[in-house]
TrEMBL record:
Keywords: DNA-binding, Transcription, Transcription regulation. PROSITE patterns: HTH_GNTR. This is GntR family transcriptional regulator. The keyword Lyase does not apply. SMART domains: HTH_GNTR. The lineage of its organism: Bacteria, Bacillati, Actinomycetota, Actinomycetes, Pseudonocardiales. Residues 12-80 form the HTH gntR-type domain.
Length: 131
């Protein structure tokens, strides 16, 4: 079963953290079409947050066509237009990124510098039409 977590120090609203976690899990293949998300009351109990916060996250995910709520059954992940990547691809990319991050931190970059560098490269890739 999918388990949500909250980072109280991130500065990101809790409902948005829930949405982002589902988006990422779908993109990385951890959630598949048809998988059921935890019930709102389960999330409320696990995270000790307001049910309206969870309901807001689920509504946003439905508006983004990421999930569909079925009355009396729960909320389920929809088929996505872009397929999730194979696990082997994910593992390979993750290892490469971990190695790169270790080199960046060893070179003296802090988290903000790494984020700035990644944002810069993302922008360059968008400008080149790669991303």
């Amino acid at each position: 079963m999918f388990v949500f977590r909250l980072d109280t120090h991130s500065g990101v609203p809790p409902y948005l953290q829930l949405v982002q976690q589902v988006r990422q899990a779908v993109l990385l293949g951890f959630l598949q079409p048809g998988d059921r998300l935890p019930l709102i009351r389960e999330v409320v109990e696990d995270l000790a947050i307001n049910p309206n916060t969870v309901a807001k996250a689920y509504r946003q995910m439905e508006q983004e066509d990421l999930v569909t709520g079925r009355p009396g059954q729960g909320t389920f992940v929809n088929e996505q237009q872009s397929a999730a990547m194979p696990a082997s691809t994910y593992t390979s990319l993750r290892r490469g990124l971990e190695a790169w991050l270790r080199r960046a931190y060893a070179a003296g970059l802090d988290e903000r510098a790494v984020d700035a560098l990644l944002a810069s490269v993302h922008q360059q890739m968008r400008n080149e039409g790669v991303a």
